[in-house]
Structures are given as structure tokens and as C-alpha cells.
Amino acid sequence: MYTGSLRRLIDELGRLPGIGQKSAQRIAFHLLKVPTEDARRLAEAIIEVKERTALCAICLNVADTGELCPICADDRRDTSVLCVVEDPRDIVAVERTSRFSGRYHVLHGALNPLEGVGPEQIRVTELLRRLEPERVQEVILCTNPNLEGEATALYLGRLLAPLGLTVTRIASGLPVGGDLEYADELTLGRALEGRRNVADGS
Amino acid sequence: MYTGSLRRLIDELGRLPGIGQKSAQRIAFHLLKVPTEDARRLAEAIIEVKERTALCAICLNVADTGELCPICADDRRDTSVLCVVEDPRDIVAVERTSRFSGRYHVLHGALNPLEGVGPEQIRVTELLRRLEPERVQEVILCTNPNLEGEATALYLGRLLAPLGLTVTRIASGLPVGGDLEYADELTLGRALEGRRNVADGS
Fold it and tell me: Cystine design at A9: which of A139, A151, B11, B49 (Cβ 3.0–4.6 Å)?
């Protein structure tokens, strides 16, 4: 139905995550309508991100080629605490809380035996190699609270336990502003398990 | 939080229709991960669609630069019936029905006085200019069944009425497989208004 170059663009857009056939069409027609320079800016941004982006040599976060990521380059960050995340996007989520002033380590994945992702497929070796030179005192396991993330945290917890540093796991429980009535039983169960003293009884 | 080129890509992606901040991030990280040639293919498809795509000289559908669209180029199509649509995508929708073998005319919009879209802003002149040379017998007003589309159909109906050709409007009613219970009152009202004889009573 569509001509050659439009067809190709729709196909390429349809390969992007979360973009179905309808969205791909909508975006393609949008690009047809906008000024050429706008479309060209998008095309150039795509090329550029591939050319100029690499992984930070310290934490494996996304960084400009040949440079450290903004967090590792910031010498006000506390190097004794390491927050281990699955993905660079998780760093953004943690940073948004303003509750963490240490550095990160990006695993680039989580253990998933069914899909063939073992410890060798994620950046565990790089994590171990950092602990001594950076004099890390605490490792916070900040992987996702799902099956793969929990398995990864469990694995790393066992791996790091003998090394004599504090290893912690972020809390699971009811989201702030949440509602008991709508909580799933797993989350509520976790919230109960992780209950904390509010009064000493003394 | 993100480095220069990644930030720029996320911003550019976020300008696309239906792409929010989260989707833009997801797509950008996806592009970071895929092989460079895949990302380059997308970038090139964007540039190419701007360079090689123009409007069909007859119906204003999207076409390769300097050529007619596949439908106007097909000499088996009936030139005496013209289906007027708002957007090239609507042609795909009508073609999918396999119920129409005439040609199209793309208005590239619908009347919307509030946003300053009058008859001069959509391709009405081009429509009028086609009627005689192509010996059009029937014009099917196939604009959307919403406020703007109805206004456009009303306007075109009045404009074409004195020219001695058949002017029709697509039917509104319950969608096939729909449910009376969930029909909105406007649609159900239209379905009642447009009711058709199924038995003659004779």
C-alpha cells in the first residue's frame, strides 16, 4: 500500500521496542510532515549516540566515549558505598530519590537461567574487581524485585558475604501512597516480613 | 543524568507523536544496544523518506518523488468514483476492506475553524479541479465520523450538490461485532436513524 521509502521507514520504526504497526505508521507520517531539518536532527542523533557513547570505565554506566560517567567523574561521591543495578536507567531512578551519594555498578542484565543468562553474561567480574581498589565498605543490591532480580541479589549476596563487607538489599513492601486493599499478596507478605519497630515497648 | 548525545537522542525521540519520556528512554537504550548497522538503517530510512517521498500528482496520496501513487498508477481502477479522505492512512483502511475499486482524493486535513483550518487550508480546490477531466460520477465523502470530519463532509456535500453528480457519505452505526449495551448514545442514535429495510412487508 505504501511506497518504497515510506514502507522501509515504517518497518524500521516497527522494530523499536513498544512501537507497533499503528504507532510506526503514525510516526512515519509525522516525519513526512515535519520540516526536513527536524527529521534530519533525529537521524543524526541516532547516528551520534552510536558513535559517541560508550560505557564508563569504572561503573559501566553510559558515558561519552573516552570519559567517565558524570557520577564517577564527580569527586564528591562517596566511593565506599556501591549501589548495584541491572541497567543504566535504574541509576536515574535511584538518583531521583536524592537518598544515595555513593557510586554505582551496572550489571547490564540479571540472572535468567531459562534464557541462558548466567553470572558470566552479566558484569559480575567487573564488580568484584572494583571492591578492593575503591575500598568499598557496603554493597547495596538494588536489582529489580522480580524473579531475575531476586535471583541476582541472592547470588551476589552469597558471593560477597565472605569478603567481609556489608551487603544490603533494598526493601520490598507497599508503595508509598498505596492501598492495602489493592496490594498483591506477595508484596503485602514482604511488607509484613520486613516490618520495623516503631515503639520500643520500654 | 544522561550524557550529551544520549540526552539529545531522548529529546528528539520524545518529540515524536505518542512517544513519552519513558518510551523515548527505552528506545534510546535499545538503539544503544543494537548493532550500529541497525541504528544506521533507521537513520537512513528517516532521511530517505524525506528525500524520496512526495505527493501523487493526481490524488495527493503519498508517492515516490516524480511518480503517481500505486493506486492512481493502476489503470484497472474505476476513475468514475472518487473516495475523499482526510489522510493518506485512511486510504490504507479503505483498501483493506476490498470494497472500493475507484480512486481517492486526500484532503490532508479536515475543517476546524477553532484551529484556523478553513477550506483553503485543505485540498478542496484540487478536488474540484479533478471532477471534470476524470469524468467523476460519484464522490464518496469518507472523512472521519467526528466533529471535524462531519463538518468537512457537510461543507463538501453542499459544494458538490449543484454539480450534478452523486455525493454520498459513509454510514455511521454500530461496529460489526459490537454490543448494544456498550454503544454510546450518539452512535446508537445514528444506527437508528440509518436503519434499513430488511423485509418489504409485501
Answer: B49
